Write the structure tokens for this entry.
Amino acid sequence: MKMKRVAATILSGAMAVSLAACGGGDKAGEGAKSAAADANTESAGEGIAEQAQGGVELEVVTTFAGNDGNAQNYKTFYQQWEEKTGNKIEDMSATADDTFKVRVVTDFETGSEPDVLFFFNGSDANSFIEAGKVVSIEDIRAEFPDYASNLDDGRIPVSLVDNKAYAVPVNGIWEAMFVNTEILDAAGVTMPGADYTWDQFTEDCQKIKDAGYTPIAAALGDIPHYWWEFSIFNYNTPENHLTIPESADDEMGKGWVAGMEDIKALYEAGYFPENTLSAKDDETFAMFTEGKAAFLLDGSWKVNGISDSCQSDPEDPSTLDADKLAKFDVTYVPAKDGRKATDLIGGLTSGYYITKKAWDDPEKKAAAVDFISYMTSDEVVPEFAQHGSSALKNVPEVDENVFNELQMKSLKMVAGSTSFTGPVQDLFQGESRVPTFDGMPEIVSGSVDAKDAVQEGLDIYWSSN
């Protein structure tokens, strides 16, 4: 049986949780401003800071834009770096969607790449790493030995291309299940815990449905990603989840098919919204926050979105309705077969790259190293990581006063996890995903057999690998 086991690009063991000691949240408040004022580039060495001084302009592209919770944090800190060094950032950040990914790859192909790039460290980066367009951390340290020295090398992801580290991470992500406890109470359902099973979950979904609510907030015709991932993970383990099967008939492939069939069973039982095949993700998210749906499978970035929905002014954290927020919780995704409920999908999936273009420019080289050292310092990283994770060696202690209740619940949930495994969908890229991602409505409605859809995707994947 031929299978492809991809090099681990993120943590397969329990990931350290970064508990920010200073305030700030996603709005870069007073805590962020204070930390920015105190942040320095000692980890990069005084020599770097001296070389980086004076009138250098760096073109920087990141994903800290649009609705990203750290967009304001990014702006705050790069402006502080500008004031500190006298250098300038030409910010060309954009929302991290498929269009953005294509743009970044195309820029490298046409010689239009930026000086510094904050981007994904999985297969999305393969093309420009293979082309030698970015510089490895190892090569940077040959000239700047203290580069990223405040981070644990064991937590810095390595490339699928050559098993070398290129991207310096800031904050990690996790995926889990958010809960509207008000609906659970109305349906007589107990808050799920660390040993939550798939059978318990389906029983709870039926109770919720009988009580007149929608059990699961999901737009299967728009964003089936999270259910796709965990339904497959349920038939795997942290050790083999990043293995892509050759066939829908081999052991791993059968697990992929079974996962799709589990989603179909949930759909047939009426546990998704009635319009799940046509609704957009923001519509079903609103169902969850407005008390119409009980469960939401999503990522750590949704903590801020849920909190914002409990504010009379989404842009002003001081308007938070704490009683409303208290009705939301977060727990583990129900387990089945191979994985434990406490085995999470997540990791340090993005980081800062220095391009060869900047590295070959004597002035920009030092400025790029100094900029990334500043943006990944012990003082700055916690502002971005918040209730997520990081690669810091020195994890600051948490000050509970600077986190809202849902953030604290998230920290406790992550602290109870048994492992973090990367999303296999990040390896199963492009056209390979179309039969089961875009084709999810056909699978769950029965017009396309789950096994046929999985096999079609695998055939596309293996024809290009």
About this structure: The chain has a mean pLDDT of 87. The chain has two domains: 18-172+348-396, 175-345+419-458. Residues 54 and 86 are 5 Å apart (CA to CA).
